[in-house]
Amino acid sequence: MRHRAALAGAAALVGLLVVVLAVLVRGPVGYPELGLADSGVLVRVLVPALRTVVDLAAAATVGGLLVALVVATPAPDTVPFTPTGRRALGVARGAAWAGAVAAALSVPATLADSTGGHVPLGPDLVTTMLARGEPIGWLVAAVLGVATALAAGEVRRWTGALGVLVLAVGAVLVPVATGHAADGVGRDLGLATTAFHVVAAAGWLGTLGVLAVLGGDARSRWRVARLGAVAGLVTVASGAVAATVALNGPGGPGAGLDWTLLVLLGAAFAVVAGGVLWRRRAGRVAWPVDLALLAAVVGLSAVATRAVPPVQAAGATSTPTALLGYGLAAPPTPAVLATSWRPELVTLTLAVVLAGLYAAGLRRLAAEGAGWPVARSVAWFAGCALLVVATSSGLGRYGPAVLSVHIAGHMLVATAVPLLWALGAPIVLARRTLREAPPEGPEGPSEWLEHLLAAPALRWACHPAVALVLVVGSPALLYLTPVFALTQPLGWLQPLMTLWFLLVGVLFLGPLVAGPPDGPGLPPIARLTFLVASMPVHALVGLTLLATDHPVSRTPVLPADGGAGQIFVDDFFVRLRLPWAPDLLADQHLAGILAWLLGDLPLLAAVVAVLVAWSHHARDEDADRRADLLVGLTSR
Length: 636
Hints:
Membrane topology: Multi-pass membrane protein
Radius of gyration: 27 Å
Number of strands: 2
Subcellular location: Cell membrane
Main location: membrane
Transmembrane segments: 53-73, 94-115, 135-153, 160-182, 194-215, 227-247, 259-278, 285-304, 345-366, 378-395, 407-429, 465-486, 492-513, 525-547, 593-616
Keywords: Cell membrane, Membrane, Transmembrane, Transmembrane helix
Number of helices: 26
Strand order of the largest sheet: 1-2
Helix content: over 70%
């Protein structure tokens, strides 16, 4: 194993060597375009070199956790992890520490890179960090890396490793939110595709490298090949889309040429690595060669983050395009909302994947000759379709610019979609269609689902009292405090907020409407009580928006120099400078009405669903009692 680890380390050094060579060949390119002074060759090498270390460490962390979770798995009802899985957790822990250290060192390195080679101290340090954003991203990534390393050392069960994987993915994504993809034309598409790209690439490279170092049986290699095929496909597809978005800039001929050449060179290395991987399956090429090529791709990608893509080249763009990533030419009339589609890739991907998995379950039931209620299927697919409409139609496109449209989309995601999904009974379908692993075989999707459903954190979050606090507190915290005004300019945060509202709605309505997965749950009268108790929050939000005499999108801002006692007011909606901009207070009043109606109408439908189920259950119990009585009389 030590020999294999040394070979993997040598492959990583190839990535660092590529960084040094690329930086020396390029020279101080990109600094004049960004209005920055050359920071010197040492800083120019150090910044992408540290990022390469972070990316390679992130891949090893994610790969180690995936090997422990889904590759080298034990037989059912035995130990939580195999010996290979435990060694993989150790690799993930060590890699997380290395990535955290490199991310922490990237904070002063990126500060020096943006200030001509020196690190500002005192009050200028905070001002520079806030102005650039990238150092803050690295600081957060370092904190998440430390948390990942500490948590990986305390993992005792499958769900614990899954939680650590979530932390590791978060550490991977934080630098993306402060990188090139978060700015410029098409930033909404570029940010999502880049996020998919870096996560899939980390899983692809990480699982390949960790299993190559640790070794594994034929089944583990087969699972890595399947996982790598999916991750590789996502990596290539998302990378192509992200590159296309970045190339669609407003600059003239030659804009972003340096960035384009680096991306094309990295793509060429990736193609060669794919060919080497294919030949290695036949035993013709050693695995260190493949890892070295992939490490070179990582190094070139790190150097490309210091170049200026065409999408950020100087050019004339409208204010909405600069702030949102796309233009909004017409006011949001019903016809415009119905026809102005723009894909929100995170929720669109989620809806497509969930619909595909449900369809696969239905197909397996049909192959077995088993039936399934049509109403459940209709409800599930309608929920997936509604999620797409709420986030990728005009509701999603105009939501960041118009409060009433934003409220409408969020209320549908938070209440209507979770209700339809609860009526679809996906857990029942999964348990009927997922095949259990054989007694001597490794765990599979059926066992992983049961591990997830039995997780203490999930059971706690699904408790009606806890879920009620989340479903009541989330909209109140967002719309009745300055949180909305402070987070609205952060475009990368919008998909996360949507996913949070969706998750909270699922945790609340799922157990109340469909019942918990492991038992009958609360009696119907208790379910109705919790549902009715959640309804006043939407009325409170709506009435507050109606009664407030100032737009909730405004927030006071104190300039960095103190402003001589003067406090300015910042409003993201005003900054958009839309030619058809609505009256903010009038639109806020409409948002209050929509929050009330769209928030409570699905809950009212949930109450009706519980009442109907209660009625059917009572009728079935009466029928059973009459049947028992008839049997008793007949037996006499």
